[in-house]
């Protein structure tokens, strides 16, 4: 298992256009015992994301690898079903219900987002099967009394509060504005950061909501920022919504060098006009990283074997071992 830790990174993004085609994996339903993988892209999307493509490929590679290691349950290899949820709770629930009514699903890998995870965690508990998310970080999901069948390979957002507090202490910052998306991920991050600030005598001067339904900030961003003394802004949103928030900030000219922005998600330069790149300089990202980045131990034999399987069956999406999405 890879170790995820929070690390503060400069705002440095690669620019890459990726095109994916359908690959020929071994038949997933060769066994009556199956795992269900839930991935965030919409079904039949024409614009698949690296996040979903890489995660799905590693899911399949792990199960092919389990067969090579002769891992069986009740004398059978483990097969799989992979479903695209569209990144929303209803899509995740629909895919899960369809899978469990047509196959013997013994566990769920996913879903990706916190806004999907609570309902899938509750479903897993009712069906007495484990659900293991690779990217859902909402702190309340750690409550074993509420979600006894839910696990994850990434740390809770509660873990990010320590580096944020240390960052503010290091530079003698005392206050900030926080922008967060109005779902479980955004609200959960807002709550744990707010609590950590209160415990360390730091202040969040203003909370600003980004509405993911309307895809707009509630209120006048330029007016709010210009009338608040602090010049530090924390954004707690996923990569897609972070890019929308930054575009709004670019339109109002409230990025660098006037404000220091701290992001919880990495976005691509491709989202913005090249003439605006200089205004994006100086941002910070709080990002979970894999254990190898900080020299933590991990099983290189199994990991490299999974990479080889991915490259064998889906070479058109394999980016090389050093460029695999961290969540995958």
UniProtKB/TrEMBL annotation:
Superkingdom, taxonomy of origin: Eukaryota
UniProt entry tagged with the keyword Membrane: yes
Keywords from the UniProt entry: Glycoprotein, Membrane, Receptor, Transmembrane, Transmembrane helix
Gene3D superfamilies found in the cross-reference section: 3.40.50.2300
GO CC, alphabetical: membrane
Subcellular location: Membrane
GO MF terms, alphabetically ordered: G protein-coupled receptor activity
Protein name per the record: Receptor ligand binding region domain-containing protein
Organism: Rotaria sordida
